[in-house]
Description:
This protein is 62% helix and 0% strand.
Amino acid sequence: MLRSNGYADLPEILGLAGMFAVLGPTFAAFILVGVESGRVGMGQLLRRVLETGFSKWWWLPTLLLMPLIGILTALVMSLLGVETPEWAAPTLITALLTSLTILFIGGGLEEFGWRGYALDRMQTGKNALLASLVLGFFWGLWHLPLFFMQGTTQHEAAIPIWEFILQIMVLSVLFTWLYNNTRGSLLVAILFHTIGNTTGALLPLYFASGLGRWINFGILLVTAVAIVLIWGHRTLNHDQPVPQPSLPENN
């Protein structure tokens, strides 16, 4: 951030640190779990990415919900005559490479920290909806440096930080809904995060206009409200047990 804005003449190689900063929530999660329950707990957290013991129906919203919201946003923008940049549909190779990049350095692997560690503890014995909104606030705030770094979506589109955080808070409800209904599957959370960011990268929603972003926010909000009304605000999964923090059996 300092180098990007010309506040300090730092070596170019230090710019690589930004590629690993995205893993901050995950590093923090493994450090905290290590302190709490040692290597056994860290191994349990890592293995949770393999959790697939849930209804296969949940793969549909995991893989398709964010692309559908993105496409619907683009359609509404077109119907309302909102001006958008020139855009061409990406090739399959482009989409796959973008997804892989986002998976590793674009936010996907953050989920060990946000959902795998923080959400488990925030919603245990509490309100899942409130936990989602509070977590979403800090998740959004985590992106603050990007608003001062040239070349990032947040900086180039001049998105107000409060607007970005508000959107992330609503999006967090969708994450909790999927997470709580898939027995705390980190694979689902990682894929949903990766596909959501990929959708935003391939569809020019943020670079279109403030109105385009608000259309996207409105669709997200309607989706989140529907989820809360149908699945209930207490657990977002028809009051079934929510995922609990993983602890070694000998603790």
